[in-house]
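User: I've been trying to design a sequence by hand for this structure and keep getting stuck. Would you show me what you'd pick, starting by listing the structure so we're on the same page?

Assistant: Good idea, let's start from the same input. This is the structure you sent:
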C-alpha cells in the first residue's frame, strides 16, 4: 500500500512531535520557489543538505508523462519509476537530525513524479516538455541556492542525496563517483571520512546495515562503486566542482524503505549523519533538551 509522507510523519509523531511541528506546514518558500513549483524546500542553518529527487508522486498541472520513444538521447538512462519512501525518509531524517544537532539541515524534496521530470539527469535528458522543465529547474534552483548558502556560511558542507533501489534489497549503496564527489573531504581527512568508523557509511555498518561497496573491502575501496556510482546531482554539486560541497548518493534497498522499517532507517541514518557531523563538520551536541522536548530512546 502506498504511504504518504504525512502518514509516516504522523506515525513517527510519538517519537519527534516537537520537531514535526517545526516541519509541518512547510516553511515559507525561498525566493527560488514559486507556488506552482512542486518542490518542498526547508532552508536550514546546518552545513548539511538532504535531497530526495525521486520520491514524489504528484502530477504537475498540464504535465505529460515522458516516454522512451520521445527520448532523443540517453535512452539507457530513461527511468520513470519513483523511489518509494525516499521523500518520507528524507523528511524523517531532517526531523530527527534537527533534534540531534540542535539546528536544521536544508531539506529539498521533489514532490513531482519522476515520469514528468528526472532531477537526477542532465538537463537535456531530464524532461520532454516545458512543464517538466519548469519543475526540474525549480528543484535545481533550490539545490543550487542551498549549496551556495552553505558555502557562504560555512565554506564547506555535505549533500546527502537519497534514493531507493531494488537490486540489492538489504543493502545501502554508496555513490560518490569512486570518491570524486567528496574530493575535498578525502583530501582533508582521508578515506576514513567516507568509510571509517565515524563516517556515515561506517556508522550505518555499525548499526547493522549492509553497505555496498563494503567499507572494509579491498585496499582501494573507493574504486569499486560498480552498482550505483553516483548520478547527476552528486556530480553537479560535489566538491570536485569549483562551487560544490561534498556529496554522497545513498541508494536504500527495498527492505530499508518498508513502511514498518522506515522510522528505524531514518533513526540509524540520523545517528550516522550526526556522528559524521561531529567528527568532520565540527558540529557539537546541542544543550540537553528539556523533558518536554525529549526524544524517546
Ligand atoms: Zn533515485
Amino acid at each position: 500500500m502506498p504511504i504518504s509522507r504525512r502518514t509516516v510523519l504522523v506515525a513517527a509523531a510519538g517519537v519527534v512531535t516537537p520537531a514535526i511541528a517545526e516541519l509541518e506546514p512547510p516553511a515559507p518558500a525561498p525566493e527560488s520557489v514559486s507556488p506552482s513549483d512542486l518542490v518542498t524546500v526547508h532552508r536550514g542553518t546546518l552545513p548539511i543538505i538532504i535531497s530526495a529527487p525521486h520520491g514524489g508522486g504528484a502530477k504537475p498541472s498540464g504535465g505529460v508523462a515522458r516516454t522512451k520513444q520521445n527520448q532523443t538521447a540517453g535512452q539507457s538512462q530513461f527511468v520513470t519509476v519513483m523511489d518509494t519512501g525516499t521523500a518520507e525518509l528524507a523528511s524523517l531524517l531532517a526531523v530527527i537530525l534537527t533534534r540531534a544537532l540542535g539546528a536544521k539541515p536544508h531539506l529539498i524534496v521533489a514532490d513531482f513524479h519522476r515520469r514528468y521530470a528526472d532531477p537526477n539527469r542532465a538537463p537535456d535528458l531530464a524532461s520532454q516538455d516545458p512543464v517538466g522543465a519548469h519543475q526540474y529547474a525549480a528543484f535545481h534552483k533550490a539545490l543550487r541556492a542551498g549549496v551556495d548558502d552553505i558555502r557562504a556560511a560555512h565554506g564547506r558542507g555535505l549533500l546527502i542525496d537519497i534514493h531507493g533501489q531494488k537490486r540489492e534489497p538489504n543493502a545501502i549503496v554508496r555513490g560518490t563517483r569512486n570518491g570524486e564527489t567528496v574530493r575535498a573531504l578525502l583530501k582533508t581527512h582521508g578515506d576514513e571520512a567516507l568509510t571509517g568508523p565515524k563516517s556515515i557509511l561506517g556508522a550505518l555498518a555499525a548499526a547493522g546495515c549492509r553497505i555496498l561497496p563494503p567499507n572494509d573491502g579491498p585496499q582501494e575501496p573507493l574504486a569499486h562503486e560498480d552498482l550505483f556510482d553516483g548520478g547527476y546531482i552528486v556530480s553537479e554539486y560535489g566538491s570536485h566542482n569549483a562551487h560544490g560541497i561534498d556529496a554522497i548518493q545513498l541508494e536504500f534497498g527495498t527492505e530499508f524503505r518498508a513502511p514498518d522499517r522506515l522510522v528505524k532507517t531514518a533513526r540509524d541514518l540520523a545517528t550516522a549523519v550526526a556522528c559524521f557531523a561531529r567528527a568532520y563538520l565540527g558540529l557539537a551536541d546541542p544543550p540537553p533538551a528539556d523533558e518536554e522536548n525529549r526524544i524517546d530512546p
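That's my pick for every position. To get oriented when you compare it with your attempt: The CA atoms of residues 102 and 287 lie 8 Å apart. The chain is about 35% helix and 15% strand.
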